[in-house]
Write a structure and sequence with these properties.
alpha/beta, Rossmann fold, 9-stranded mixed sheet
Amino acid sequence: MGNFQEKVTFIWDLADLLRGTYKRNEYQKVILPFTVLKRFDNVLEYSKKDVLAAYNNYKDKIDNLDPILKGKALDKNGNELGFYNYSKYDFNSLLQDPEHIEENLMHYLDCFSPNIQDIFENFYIKNQISKLSKADLLFLLIKKFSDSKVDLHPDKVSNHEMGTIFEELIRKFSEQSNEEAGEHFTPRDVVKLMTHLIFIENGLHLQEPNLIKKIYDPACGTGGMLSSCKNFVNEINNSIDVVLYGQEINEEIYAICKADMLIKGENSENIKGPYSTLSDDQLPEDRFDYMISNPPYGRKWEQDKETILKEAGKGFKGRFGAGLPRINDGQLLFLEHMLSKMKETEKSRIAVITNGSPLFTGDAGSGESNIRKWIIENDYLEAIIGLPDQLFYNTGIKTYIWVLTNQKPQERVGKIQLVDASTKYKKMRKSLGNKRNQLSDEDISYILELYNKYELNDEIKIFDNEDFGYTKVTVERPLQLNYEVNDERSDNLYSINAFSKFADSKSKDPDSKLKEEKVGKQKQDAIINALNKIDGFYNNWDKFEKLVEKSLNRFDLSPTLIKNIILALSEHDDNADYVTDSRGNKKTDGNLRDTEKIPLKQDIDEYFEKEVLYYYNDAWMDRKKDKIGYEINFTQYFYKYEPPRSLEEIEADIKKVTDEIQELIKEDLDEN
């Protein structure tokens, strides 16, 4: 069976054995690890006898057999495989002893090299073996995997072909379990676009011989993005040594990725996990040429909080010196992390997917805004591509690809390109979860053409970095109040904490409590009665204050309470006198305080005169409170006004639908 798609279909059909014992979305917990096990079993065939001989010869003489056994585990060309198994069993011999197949299979697993055991431990394969054995399915499954149709020997299936088989299985299972797929598996069409964007020419040279390029994904999932990047580079120049790195937090997904890398002949030790990238970076000293990722959207980083806060305390000596976003979304933390992994003197490029939140969430001075400020002011952001909605399995929201680099082409220095690709998609014949749209090859080519065009049109906007920045200025207005004692305003006194507490009692004795509350209520009534003797309407604080102080003199109230009573008896009045302090300076009205977002390119004083003083000639700015913010309101830049439909058009549609309904009713009556 030479065609890899036939092998995929046969392995996929093995899931029929599992029906009843496993739910549909659990099939992969068995099929994927057993596919990996079968491949390893076939690969180890060539040097199996040599490994066993070395093990039996040295097991009682040397404590650490790992280097010796790795040296004996070779392919037919004499290359070290990087893993081994010193058990006497293989798939064929396991079938010779059906009664002890569970026990023997467990022993077989325990005899793998540590790097392989790490994979199967994170697959929890022993749990599945026990479950299969209890359901009398273990022997049948091993027998099916031993079928000649699943011959995964390297003579029949190359590393590249095996990687393709495994990738296809991962894709099929991921698409089947749509709810979980989006967290670990990015659709191929999106990966293809991102891969092209990260390697788009722009001065990057992949034609030179014998280059070494390091590629990294901090939320690598099953490793699809990494594999896509390597394939892309090798198609351009197969002399380039592409080294893949990744980290994944989910145990089973980490196992899948590591197994996939090992199957393809990659260095699986470069795949780290299962650890959180944000709080436990397993590659702290590494820097990369290219980075590509689809980190989780809107996921809390509360579990990582302690470590992240500690790292942020290091400033730019750590990964999160630019700021921290709100606790319920860690997307910008991944962006900071990736930017910290850029090379210092050589060019690095990044392609990362986010939802809309990191573009604009957070006001000036917030963690989100400060991170955007740092990214843009350091000229890292090259472009943002707005994608269509409904591209992903587990969410229908719109997403955006950020393209970042530490060395922009000359024509892009100080500029940011926005590309609106939201209408470039094809409808799928059958939806997969929330994925109803896909990017065809034509769509991808068109988007790349837009990116390369780098000229203004309806789908491309080019801005200076500063265009996304603004100064948030605090605008103050003077306090102007009128004053009057009436029933409505007197009721406001009860909202003053100190006044309302007069009628409270902390006594635990019911009689004492009632007595104290009665005395307090009498005091409140006496204060209000005293104030009611102030007649008239006033528009000057000082005059009214004197009257209040005189009326309430016998109550020995604090100056603060007197002030709050006056405020309770007042209302804003543009025609009243300004309230001033002891030096004659106008006091501010906190209720009228406002802010203005003034673009960085605009003169603040000119803006203030035109947009504020024109309407409020006594306003002023408190420049000590200025904050610089950055936001990218993507939708705003591509907004097109669409006039509402005419009444005639709407009426015509209503009449058409009504006529159709009446016709259907008539047909139904005629039939009956």
